[in-house]
Design brief:
The chain has 204 residues and is α/β, with parallel strands linked by helices. The chain has one domain: Aldolase class I (TIM Barrel). The chain is 26% helix and 22% strand. Helix 4 links the parallel strand 4 and strand 5.
Length: 204
């Protein structure tokens, strides 16, 4: 069974509700260019609510070391998800488990998945000009047949919603990343849409 990450948590009321659905991971975006941006104060409040059974993930886009260390102080159990142009050396320098995002448009982009050998998992996101993610668009999943899902943890992201989550699950990723497809508008998540997806997965 694929693990589930719900990304782009920026509302404490939604956080309290989504916890009840028991996702494996919840993503918090620290990139100011995102409609789902949160700051340190929000993260502190979220950590007061988040149960130990759900692991927080910090989405980081070319932030400096001091910024990242502050996140770790607030949430010592956090997974760092590097979403920018960070090197493997930088990603691994914090001594923390980390995921690295690889932006995919075609099969050539899959080569980047092999660069970050020290990553705990590789997140496969749809490449989009001027956007880091959360576009609601998928890439061509048929190219993923080239990857070895048995020997590396891959997280599939980008446009996963009610209409295609079972197809996404059938590909065999370690985890599915749900974000924009459970929103009523960019940055505004719907617990009803989330419940529909979790029910569909549970019924399979």
């Amino acid at each position: 069974m694929a693990k589930i990450k719900v990304c782009g948590i920026n509302n404490l009321s939604f956080l309290k509700q989504i916890i009840k659905l028991k996702p494996n991971f919840l993503g918090f975006i620290f990139y100011k260019g995102s409609k789902r941006y949160i700051d340190f104060e929000f993260m502190k409040a979220a950590m007061q609510i988040l149960p130990s059974s759900i692991i927080p993930v910090a989405v980081i886009v070319d932030h400096d070391q001091a910024f990242i260390k502050k996140i770790i102080e607030i949430a010592p159990n956090i997974i760092l998800q590097f979403h920018g142009s960070e090197t493997e050396e930088f990603c691994s320098s914090f001594g923390m488990p980390y995921w690295k995002t690889v932006h995919i448009k075609n099969s050539k982009d899959l080569l980047d998945a092999y660069v970050y050998e020290s990553a705990d998992a590789i997140l496969l996101e749809t490449k989009s000009d001027g956007r880091i993610g959360g576009t609601g668009k998928t890439f061509d999943w048929t190219i993923l047949k080239e990857l070895d899902f048995d020997n590396k943890k891959y997280i599939l992201a980008g446009g996963i919603g009610l209409q295609n989550i079972l197809q996404a699950k059938s590909i065999g990723p370690w985890c599915l990343d749900i974000n924009s497809m459970i929103e009523t508008e960019p940055g505004v998540k719907s617990i009803d849409k989330a419940k529909e997806i979790f029910k569909l997965i549970a019924d399979v």
